[in-house]
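Final report, closing paragraph on structural work. Over the funding period we assembled a curated collection of sequence-structure pairs, and we close with a single example.
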Amino acid sequence: MSASFLELQSIHKSFGKFKALNDINLSIKQGEFVCFLGPSGCGKTTLLRIIAGLEQQTSGKIIQQQKDVSHLPPSLRDYGIVFQSYALFPNLTVKDNITYGLVNKRVNRQEISNKVRTLLETIGLPDSANKYPNELSGGQQQRVALARALATSPGLLLLDEPLSALDATVRVHLREELCRLQKQLGITTIMVTHDQEEALAIADRVVVMNHGVIEQVGTPLEVYHYPANPFVASFVGNINCLDAISDGNHYYKCGESTIYAPNSDAYTKGESVKIYLRPEDRKVELDDSNVDPIFKGTIREIEFLGGKCLAELNVSSFGEQSIRLQFSLNQIYDLGIERGKELPFTFRPERINVFTD
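Its predicted structure, as stored:
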């Protein structure tokens, strides 16, 4: 993944007085899997449709493989697309749905037959060529839609929330298959999603969007551990947010307690800030050698999430602010964590993020 495959240069999009996209600049590498992540209305689907030529940008350029495709119609752009709604033809068989684009390109029958067989094997539906969409499950229909998008061997694959209509178990399985298939084919892929877990699990890079602008671009680890601003910190993953005052030299007064964040910016003493703490970035199995300040909180609620749990603690020394700490189910048992219990804890200071109000 070295050469730039797709360049978005100063993309703007307005609907009347409303600015849907404002100065979008992004470079996507050959073979990269990129996720556009953001809340509803942030502009991610509009940006995908502009790349596909289904919407026209108000201004800006789209360069694909060193070719300006900014004003080309969709039929002359090199991509395959999968929609949330599958958009399969109900009166056509699986085979005919997949080959729809190939027939229009006048590909010979033998090549079409070979392509269908290969694609059906690739998506795990080798015996479904003669079935109709209504004979398939939602997950199977989405696989067929994916095969149809790949049938013409496009250079770019566009995915518009392709898994959001599926139930949780099928969604996880299909995203794993999608990731495997993308790596196997080496096809440059852009997926729109509002599901943080989905984006973090499969993307090479995540583009976090909000109100028509890009807030941060980075690997899933970068976006999760080193958010660029309060929006990214709050939107990506679970997080605690505490009100505090800068005490200088990376120390912060939170109620009666002092929290040290060595990787934070150098805020002016007395400046109001927000401290962002991931629930998992805590220590509770403490010993005498621990040099970090130790806090105490009373467990108010425990939220069961399967293999992990979130315990909400009221911390009086934080000015009665509450925080949530994450534990595995085994730790819940081993540490005897239960409502009403007082729990000593500290933080991993290198993982703390601090931003101004």
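The mean pLDDT is 92. The longest strand covers residues 4-15. We thank the funder for supporting this effort.
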